[in-house]
Amino acid sequence: MKLVTFIADSRVRPGVVDGDHVVDLAAAGLPVDDHGDLMPIVRGGDAMLERVRAAISSPTRRALPLEEVRLAAPLLAPSKIVAVGLNYIDHCKEANLPVPGEPVLFTKWPNSITGPYDELHWPQGVTKEVDYEVELGVVIGRRGRNISEKDALDYVCGYTVVNDVSARDLQFANAKQWDRGKSLDTFCPWGPWIVTRDEIDNPHDLEVRTILNGKEMQKSNTKNLIFNINQIIAYASQGTTLMPGDLIPTGTPFGVGFSRTPPVFLQHGDVCECSVEKIGSIRNTVNLARSI
Length: 292
Ligand code: ZN
What we know:
There is one protein chain. By secondary structure, the protein is α+β, with helices and mostly antiparallel strands. The chain has helices at about 40-45, 45-55, 90-95, 170, 180, 230-235, and strands at about 1-10, 10-20, 20-25, 65, 70, 80-85, 105, 115, 130, 135-140, 155-165, 165, 190-195, 205-210, 215-220, 245-250, 270-275, 280-285. A hairpin with a 2-residue loop joins strand 14 (about 205-210) and strand 15 (about 215-220).
């Protein structure tokens, strides 16, 4: 299933995509919290997903045409975003950084979350070197700590697309403040939905791509991940509780802008599309007229 958070009539609600329609899960009586997003659905685990399945086929369902709603990020306020850096060998090489011996984790602050088709913006006095990074995103579905590699995928609700937008000048300056450089407002567009785990046979064989203004900039496959999803979840949960809704962007491949000659940084009016095979695409336009 494709789980979405959508906005219609100025209200944020959880939904599920059925063909070219969105079935309103709030209208179907499923739980909704203050954010109106998918969090109660994700937190409800497999039993809640069964209720979602029933809502799709209910004769009394309320369904809206997908093209008439606006999609928001699937989760607006997860407890954390645990991102993985340097997780493709060809990306380590282009960044001139050694291939790590264990996963390199960093945080994107939740204020960075924005919708799958929303505008990206930033204050030009803060950064002038903003870059794109397509990544497969993993959404945690069950609370867990010290999870084994063998059991790790049982803790996954589903998969999504993330653009790990990064201000390189902030990331690499001032004693390497990765978190700050990756956490400005709008720097974590993701979605357009969470594809539930049962629909992705092998998350370690999915093509990932970035198209910038119509030109292909990144193209790889999650089979090239240095640390796979099982290893990342096991490592990240050592002594740290992962919560339902936690988002794990799994790292970006070769082709980012800052290591090109000449470098490519996002500019006003740019359209950046990131996609993951079998999941979908997010597409964000840069609008620096909004930056303050
Ligand atoms: Zn990244």
